[in-house]
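User: Study the fold:
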Amino acid sequence: MGALRVGVHTGLQNITFEEVSSLWQDVEAAGLDWISVWDHFYPAAIGDTEGPNLEAVSCHGALAATTTRVRVGCLVYSAGYRHPGVLANAAATLDHISGGRLEFGIGAGWLQDEYDAYGIPFESPGTRVRRLAEAVEVIRSLWSEPTTDFAGEFYTLRSARCEPKPVQADPRIWIGGSGEKKMLPLVGRLADAWNAPFLSAEIWGRKWETVRRHAEAAGRDPESITGSANLGLALARDVTSVDRKRAELPEKFGPVWQFLEPGILACTPEEAVERCLSYAEAGAEWLIFAMRPPFDRESLDLLVTEVLPHLPRVRGEPDG
């Protein structure tokens, strides 16, 4: 079991910028290693799209500009929402704004209501994964090559430039998703890091081994890929209070909350320590805790003061 880095993933729905920015400052002050935002136009609940939602790229830029130490990420940009050239240039600028702290996440996209509302084609799962693969190749080339020529199924680039290049020589590309037939082979072939949300430690570990097998099949060193578990957070000091917080989960996660519950730490700090250790034993190097509004500051405080001191943590400044 290796040492862990720990971060917070902030949902941007039904929240003001002042509220989410305040949380970012508190997370960094608490000594965590990572803060990320999501990429949605609507609140991320199937069938419940009412309410405000802050935009991802602009919030990612604000996060980069208003913090000084934590890694700043997005979990994850949808490959279907923006041309990869647009994303590559935006991300390179984000790396400059943050002084080289960018963590770039990208995925195939899933919330069909958003696609339909904006007239963006919601393609089949296989097509979305192929589009994602091309986007990753285009972005990596734009970051590293003087010019990019690319002719694919979805994208064509001719002598395309991305200047300035990122501050980091080779920014890490995270791919989010857990589908075993198409997504995990892609992760093993192309990703620098993998993030999967709301899975039990047992299922996360099984999928992580699948990623590693696909990496080996692609001629890659599995140790070159970083594994991350994205977990919900609903901590309380006693069982009665835990039950109360569990009853609040539908408000934050919508009608699918029961499918996500295996990856939500709705428990006491003592149980949370054991559950976090089980992810580390399964191979996770990062634990990233999803916080959706209204933000549960008690859970964050319990995580920092009563859970993290009992976990094996990587010491020193987080780096890429």
In short: Residues 5-310 form a domain with the TIM Barrel fold (CATH 3.20.20.30). The chain is about 40% helix and 20% strand.
